[in-house]
Design brief:
The chain has 294 residues and is an alpha/beta fold. It is 41% helix and 16% strand. A hairpin with a 2-residue loop joins strand 4 and strand 5.
Length: 294
């Protein structure tokens, strides 16, 4: 890693907890260049000093670097598959489910799942965890307020049941919001819980380098129960899915099969991340990078 960008990386890590060493170099350089130009910084070292001394510039960096773009029931046909081929069978098999939205952004995906689950099992007491590295976006997610664009894929029956109009926004009802536990979590640095039946991580890792992706997918595998599924984004695939242990029955859904041992080479969920050393190939920050792609 270039010495100047390493100075910037240390500054960002200290001020925000974001690790910019795991993102693809060309994307990292482009995104930093845009923000540096706005701040009037000509070098990475100058930009580090700006972030040290200007709270507004630091807040802008966090907001833009962790691009938070999402909407409810994004790719509606995939949520139909999720409901019919995964959630419904899992309810019959497991009863009570534990579901994690990793890199949850504004909460659109986890609320979408809770609504589906409420339709399938209205009296169920399931666990819903939603995590993101961006504290500000987590606060927005907790509020559950969305614009017309965010809810464009929500079926009319669900809109009338779960949303109320408040001025220019749509408010998710308390009965849905209260079921979700939102928590700050860095996918590249923090420990993972285990015992999940479903993990959603959609359009989150597309900017990570290959080493970081591989480790994350192995850790997701370990975090699932046998029979559990990982749901990824419409532009994402796991090249080494079979090596990790996943089975794929339809695109963008990866299942940990029954009777399979832990993933070969996976880091322990509770003993560090297993990621390559910081700066092992310039690749980028921590987790929230989301999400302009389908």
């Amino acid at each position: 890693m270039d010495q100047d960008i390493e100075v910037l990386a240390r500054t960002i890590r200290r001020l925000t907890g974001i690790e910019i060493g795991y993102y693809k170099p060309n994307q990292l350089q482009r995104r930093l260049g845009n923000m540096m130009g706005r701040a009037g910084a000509r070098t990475f070292a100058e930009y580090a000093r700006v972030l040290e001394t200007d709270p507004d510039a630091l807040a802008y960096f966090v907001d833009k670097f962790t691009i938070n773009v999402s909407e409810l029931f994004r790719n509606p046909e995939k949520f139909e598959q999720l409901r019919d081929h995964f959630l419904a069978p899992m309810l019959r098999r497991f009863g009570r489910l534990s579901i994690w939205s990793a890199g949850c952004s504004i909460g659109a995906e986890i609320y979408s799942v809770v609504m589906l689950m409420d339709q399938l099992d209205p009296r169920g007491t399931h666990r819903y965890l939603a995590t993101d590295i961006d504290a500000a976006v987590l606060e927005r997610a907790r509020k559950g307020q969305y614009c017309d664009q965010d809810v464009r894929n929500v079926a009319p029956a669900l809109m009338s049941r779960y949303f109320t109009r408040e001025g220019s926004t749509w408010q998710v009802c308390d009965a849905i919001r209260s079921r979700v536990q939102f928590r700050r979590h860095d996918l590249l640095q923090d420990r993972f819980e285990s015992g999940f039946h479903l993990i959603l991580c959609r359009n989150v890792v597309i900017y990570f380098n290959d080493d970081a992706k591989s480790v994350l997918y192995r850790r997701f595998y370990e975090a699932l129960v046998p029979g559990g599924a990982l749901f990824v984004g419409g532009t994402e695939r796991i090249p080494d899915a079979r090596e990790i242990g996943f089975q794929t029955t339809m695109p963008f859904f990866y299942v940990r099969p029954d009777g399979q041992p832990g993933s070969r080479g996976a880091a322990s969920l509770n003993q560090g991340t297993g990621l390559p050393a910081r700066g092992a190939g310039v690749s980028g920050p921590s987790e929230r990078h989301r999400r302009g792609t389908q």
